[in-house]
Amino acid sequence: MTSFHRKTGLGKGLSALLDDSDVVQSTKSEIPAQEIKAPAGQSIGEIEISAIEINPYQPRTEFDQVALNELADSIKVHGLIQPITVRKMDGGKFQLISGERRFRASQLAGLTQIPAYIRTADNQQMLEMALIENIQREDLNAIEVAYSFQRMLDECDIKQEQLGERVGKNRTTVSNYLRLLKLPASIQTSIRDQKISMGHARALVNVDDLEKQLFIHQEIIDKGLSVRKVEELVRNLHEIPVKKTQSKTPSFEVKKLQDDLSSKFASKVRLKIGQQGKGAIEIPFRSEDDLNRILELLDW
């Protein structure tokens, strides 16, 4: 039987949340497959993939399909080296706490069972674990990190000065990420799509004039300006001639409202407003559990 070991270096905050004392000491009747002996008193189970539900608190909404296929190919050859982490639900079901990328790749690889740490966690702990696990991933884009930070402040009952300790980052870094959420939607999209860097974004945050902010943003994209050049432009804002555009894109107020709602519901909210002021609000959800989460936020 293949032996599994727990990967170290998850970070202080996540390590505390995933304390070994919270491991469910599962019996064979609780796990749909054979239990694996783990060192240091931990309990690891081989569980049926069909019994696992996606984490509704997962902050990541997009997964690189090419990277998933590559991981799936590796799993076909070597198996899954690092177990996922789940919590026990009613009816013999399990819910992902962390490791959705590994879970998805294992599905693509055709696995029917998957090794997992089985732990106890309430909804708030689920959210915090998922957020911290994702924040510590190097491939998370800056806007995803910023929204994760904001969700931790809004939903995990912690203050900004505590946030840095929980995620293993200093307070200045946390503040710089949160400030990105003040940028208009079009600039946030460019950050998310890696059209501009975190350095570019930090310079743009310091521009109070929206028209000049959008002008510099477009210059970065059109001319490939370096961060240093952008910082120079920001220092000399009075020299930038900006023509008012006749664009029919949503107003700044509408974009800001969309961003605020997206942050609140952790979903890409869209506002559709007609010429007479009538419209609709769209709040997409990915599963029944995700819908229930949104309804709870609406106090439904």
UniProtKB/TrEMBL annotation:
Please state what the protein is called.
ParB/RepB/Spo0J family partition protein
InterPro entries in UniProt: Chromosome_partition/occlusion (IPR050336), HTH_ParB/Spo0J (IPR041468), ParB/RepB/Spo0J (IPR004437), ParB/Sulfiredoxin_sf (IPR036086), ParB_dimer_C (IPR057240), ParB_N (IPR003115)
Q: What superkingdom does the record give?
A: Bacteria
Taxonomy, top ranks, is: Bacteria, Pseudomonadati, Bacteroidota, Sphingobacteriia, Sphingobacteriales
- Protein family according to the UniProt entry: Belongs to the ParB family.
Domain annotation ParB-like N-terminal: ranges = 45-135
> Which keywords describe this protein according to UniProt?
Chromosome partition, DNA-binding
Identify the Pfam families for this entry: HTH_ParB (PF17762), ParB_C (PF23552), ParB_N (PF02195)
